[in-house]
Amino acid sequence: MPAVSKGDGMRGLAVFISDIRNCKSKEAEIKRINKELANIRSKFKGDKALDGYSKKKYVCKLLFIFLLGHDIDFGHMEAVNLLSSNKYTEKQIGYLFISVLVNSNSDLIRLINNAIKNDLSSRNPVSMNLALHCIANVGSKEMAEAFAAEIPRILVAGNTVDSVKQSAALCLLRLNRTSPDLIPMGEWTARVVHLLNDQHLGVVTAAVSLITTLAQKSPDDFKTSISLAVARLSRIVTSAAIDLQDYTYYFVAAPWLSVKLLRLLQCYPPPEDAGLRSRLTECLVTILNKAQEPPKSKKVQHSNAKNAVLFEAIALIIHHDSEPTLLVRACNQLGQFLQHRETNLRYLALESMCTLASSEFSHEAVKTHIETVINALKTERDVSVRQRAVDLLYSMCDRSNAKQIVAEMLSYLENADYSIREEIVLKVAIQAEKYAVDYTWYVDTILNLIRVAGDYVSEEVWYRVIQIVINRDDVQGYAAKTVFETLQAPACHENLVKVGGYILGEFGNLIAGDSRSSPLVQFNLLHSKFHLCSVPTRALLLSAYIKFINLFPEVKPTIQEVLRSDSQLRNADVELQQRAVEYLRLSCIASTDILATVLEEMPPFPERESSILAKLKKKKGSSAKLPDIDETRRQVNGSTEHSANNGTANTSPPLLLEDLLPTSRPRPYSSSPILLSASTMGSAHSFTADMLNLTSTPAAAAAAAVGGGGGGLLVDVFSENSTSPSVDVSEDHLERFVCKNNGILYENQLLQIGLKSEYRQNLGRMYLFYGNKTSIQFLSFTSSVTNNTSQSQLIVQAKPVDPMIEGGAQVQQTLNIECVSEFTDAPELTIIFRYGGNPQHIAVKLPVMLNKFFQPTEMTSQDYFQRWKQLGAPQQEVQKIFKAKYPMDSDATKAKIIGFGVALLDGVDPNPANFVGAGVVHTKTSQVGCLLRLEPNTQAQMYRLTLRTSREPVSHTLLELLCEQF
Amino acid sequence: MMRFLLLFSRQGRLRLQKWFTPMMDREKKKIIRDMTTMVLSRQPRTCNFMQWKDLKIIYKRYASLYFCLAIESQENELLALEVIHRYVELLDKYFGNVCELDIIFNFEKAYFILDEFLMGGEIQETSKQIVNRSIDASDMLQEDDSSEWYEVQLFG
After folding, report:
1. Is the model's pTM score more than 0.80?
2. For A163, which of B29, B134, B143 is closest by C-beta distance?
3. Start and end of every Clathrin adaptor alpha/beta/gamma-adaptin appendage Ig-like subdomain domain (chain A) (predicted)?
């Protein structure tokens, strides 16, 4: 038994420890321990009072057993007894046992507190230190309550010895962390600051730790510490190493104190006082200069201590972010470390550069090291270092190097460590989105990502690509084509099937013209993957199939056949079964116009923070340094944590008000497209709920909006929609409302405007619903209607609206509309409000068009031709031949014609493929009859539309409105 | 601030555990398991730092013992490495060429020395001389106690 025993040996303990070590098996060890526990228990319960030594020995044995990992449920009382022993060694073991074993909620705490109180007032430094250590180790609320007033007094009392001051400072710091509210601030705080001047460097070190923590909570109270800290730092930095005697560590002057002082200074902005500021700059320059001096020792401790101070100085320089020369010097210094042979330094340089990259002064300087960093990614043997390289590449990424960095990260991903793959995937996805100039590159990148690391592509990533494709119509055709091609691979990842299913379900029509990707080919391709997929993916594919039925009536029988098969209709999974049954019924019984409305293309998603970014933040933990400039800024604006109230973000336009202008004429079934799509694409399934409700951790759209065009992620992506000072009137939505009366009129990160309207004859009423998507109220909200046409054509009266909209709330505005005579220009809605101090200005065209005042007219074939002939004058007829924009589906076309407001007349036209309609436009001054005829040519994918009315301008207006719909 | 310090052998046997924040026993056990597997699976000559959740893990091997220190994310890694080294120096000075067995058999001493050096997760005294002096002083107190103890043994 080789153990040396210094001080007092406890022979019994040593014997016991060596017995345990000699145990050959776990069982033997447990047996030995149980024997010992029985022995100790009997001793504690025995009649004979134990002397202090025995008590100490047994308590120590229990402690040992506990530290081996066994539970101890007795002996606490004996340990508490030891606390009041007048022998130091017994007291010490008692405190050790309490520190290690007593939970903060133990019922012994009152007894312990009593013993501590006695020791604190003993004036014996050794006992006081033991007591303070115990408080710091247990640190419970009860202890904080008991001693919060006492400890500051000890700390600043004139006659307290140095070592007790140190313990008191750190004990206070500890209590302040657990129960800050219990520590009374007071006159002692000013005196604590003056401890920075103390002669004893140990006291200063402990005091700086305390002051830093306090200053983080209430910086103003400790402002005076800045000048004292700078003075102290300056003295250390310029001192000769031996001045500080034992506080010199391997030829480095007081490294711990230096680092703590530099940390304290990071609680504050650069000093305002010019003298102080230049003195601090001098210190920082000296530290940077020292890094270039030859080392005073070959020992690693020397370089570690020296570089520790250097890194902390760089952290302060980055924190101040105000001295370009220092920042660039710091960057160069780190650049040297990037190639250092010490792995630790390479690691730290990469880490430190991450924060440096977010400073505008040094971002460019950091970028010059891109090749080194990429090389590190390829050659470093250590996964933690490679991880830092990934982080740095991510934060140095901007528009100029995004393509290179994304390509490098993608190629690294193929061999990357499994532990960091998911994070790399998220980062690539974010960069690809953030820096996408052309979205074909974005789509390619994400599909590549799924190909290379499909297993690590989380839901957020593939949700996001779908959101973006749906919101950007310029990339939809490309996306459809690309997923179609990618799906050709015999084995592709399930995530790709999901993306493919979703995108083809929405936009398969865009590539259906090519015979190589005809509807049937598309369907067969998707269905060939079906049986290899998991239940959620199958569910998604079923939804894609029903969308196909709407897009391509020609594959309807094939798809119905599939839905009807036993493997679908009787599927063991209830969700799949339900979908198959419902979709099959839907496809059989719903008229084509209902089908067309229900399965309408997904509306654009509300813009909000990328869910991927939220996920990455979550993964990194809240305290992790965020490398991105914008993100750090947003962090500063942290008050907007809560975001888009999910309820309002998805608010559907309210239900039709039954009592509103009852009309007898048919209207297409129309309701919120979001709701309908939600129920078809997901119904009970959680993933669609997520799709529509992506900001589960809502660090949020609101935050992005606060940045207001500050180059935030979404602002980049959706810049055309962001609220900018020069307001473009949004009118591309008008087309959508020609044939329907309800829906989402407008939406940005802040505001959603829902619309519901009803018309009868020449009168109309419109309800606008303004939904505040943020958590912050809109102030000075006004919305007014500007009528570009004269009052003699159209009268629009807007009721006033409440000037304040609470966060998450919705207010309603009613407009009364009267059509006096025919008109062409739609009125314009202007909305002005203040959000978080920023004025917002939005202008939207209101979908009030001439056709809204149609009344349908049913008539017989004979009447129709008679009227047609009557309107035979050349100026009464207008005609247009145009290419089909949408799939030429006869049911969808019928729905649109009815939605346009005329009666659809069957059996009038000898050619059943043609559509014929009739109606009367009601204005106050006149009624204008209108006949229309639409002739599709499926071969050529063309239409011919002919309109005859009694008034030429009406013919033209209606023609222009209607021909955009097919 | 430091969160915890663990000492364990190459076989993963825990030799010393110091927690600077209150934690449930179950939590402690999980951390100990995570740390030993993580640190022991590291290749030689890799860097001494790792990211673990929101903490930085600093570890270093001295002979058969691994020292593993967890610090908060804004703390200085290199200096944490020197905290470990300074502790080793203190143990070395006290035991005279310290080895794992010293820490096993005199675990309470290892805790006492640590308490002189660190407190509440912060460094209390960086001067080696001062720490050594106060450890020696408390040993002197113990010597006195032990003489008393022999008397007790003799007469008990």
Report:
1. no
2. B134
3. 735-847
